[in-house]
C-alpha cells in the first residue's frame, strides 16, 4: 500500500538528519509523510537502520555525495556543536540547525571554533522543538510528535534571512507553533518550565525506592502525574542539566528557600501564623498553576470536572466517549485513574461549566455512574 503524502508547503528538500533517536526519527517520519526526501546518518548503525526501516528516510552511506537543502543535527548536547561545525563545512550550500535542548553553550562553542567564519555561521541557527516522550530511540518515533507543540528558533547576530526562513519552514511543515527567542532567554525559560520539573519529579520518585509495596498500593493519580517524567533517560539529562546548570541552580536556590520555610512551619505547626503560612504557600501554588496556558495555548480557563465510574473491560471508555459525542458536548480534557484492587476505573472529564449539569443529567439517564 502506498503511503498517503500530505502537501509540503515550505521545504523542498532533501533534508539530512544527523542523529536518529526519538526526535530525529520523528522529524524524518513527519517530513516523509509530506513527500520530502530525507537522508539519515547516525554513529549507531543499528539506530539508523531502525529509523530507515520505520520509514523515517534513507540511510546516507559513507562516501555518498549529498547536497541537502537543510541539515538537522539531532544528536546529544555534548556533541551537537562539533557535528554542526562539521556539517557547515561538509555542506556549504545547506542551512544547518540543531534541536538540542540548550542553546547558549552550543552557540558559544561554535563562535569559538576557528574553522568557522561569518559566512558559515550565517547558515546556522539553533532551534528547540518542545516535544518528546519518556521513551527513547527511533522505535518510539512519531511523525505527529510536533503537531501543535512549540518550536523555538534562536537566531544569533550573524544568522541570515535564508537560514531563519528554512528553520521556520521545517517547524511549520511539521505542524509546530513557531516562536523566537534569544539563546539566553531560551535557556532561562527552559530551566524553569522543563529542567526544574524534571529534577523535582526525579527527587520525589527517588523517595519511593525503599517504600513498602503495601504503601505504594495506595498511590493515586496524583503521584503518577508528578512522577511521570521521572522515567526519562538519565544519560541525556546528565548532559542537559550540566549544560544549563548556572541557570537552573539559581531557580533551585529559590526552591531551597521555600522548602526551608515550609520545614520551619511544619516543625511548629501550632505556632502563631503557621496555618496562615501554609495557606499562603498553597495559594502561591494555585496562582502559579493558573498561569499555565490552557487548551491550544489560549489563556487559562476554569473548566468544570466530573468523574464517571467505568467497568474495567474492553470498549467501556470508547462507549462513554461515543455517548458524550452524541449529546454534542466537547471534551476540554480527559484523565484516567484506576481503582486499586478493584475492577473499576474512573474517567475524569473536563467540560465548559455551562454544559456540566447537562452532561451529568444525560449520563445519569443512560446508566452511567457519575461521581460529583
Describe this structure in words.
The protein has about 375 residues and is of the alpha/beta class. Helices cover about 45% and strands about 15% of the residues. The chain is built from 14 helices and 12 strands. The protein has helices spanning about 20-30, 45-55, 75-90, 105-110, 120, 160-175, 185-205, 215, 220-225, 235-245, 245-265, 275-290, 315-325, 355-365; strands at about 15-20, 40, 60, 70-75, 95-100, 125-130, 150-155, 175-180, 305-310, 335-340, 345-350, 370. It has an 8-stranded mixed sheet, sandwiched between helices. A 4-stranded antiparallel sheet has the order 10-11-9-12. Strand 7, helix 6 (about 160-175) and strand 8 (about 175-180) form a beta-alpha-beta unit.
Features of this protein?
372 residues, alpha/beta, 8-stranded mixed β-sheet, 4-stranded antiparallel β-sheet
Briefly say what this structure is.
Helix content is 45%, strand content 16%. It is α/β, with parallel strands linked by helices.
State the separation between the terminal residues, measured CA to CA. 48 Å
Evaluate the radius of gyration.
24 Å
**SSE string:** EHEHEEHEHHEEHEHHHHHHEHEEHE
In this structure, how is the largest beta sheet organized? 8 strands, mixed
How much strand? 15-25%
Assign an overall shape.
globular
Which structural class fits the helix and strand makeup? alpha/beta
Question: Strand order of the main beta sheet, please?
Answer: 3-2-1-4-5-6-7-8
Average the pLDDT over all residues and give the rounded result: 90
Query: Which blocks of ≥5 consecutive residues have pLDDT under 50?
Result: 1-5
Our count of helices gives 14
Tally of strands: 12
- Oligomeric composition of the shown chains: single chain
Into which percent range does the helicity of residues fall? 40-55%
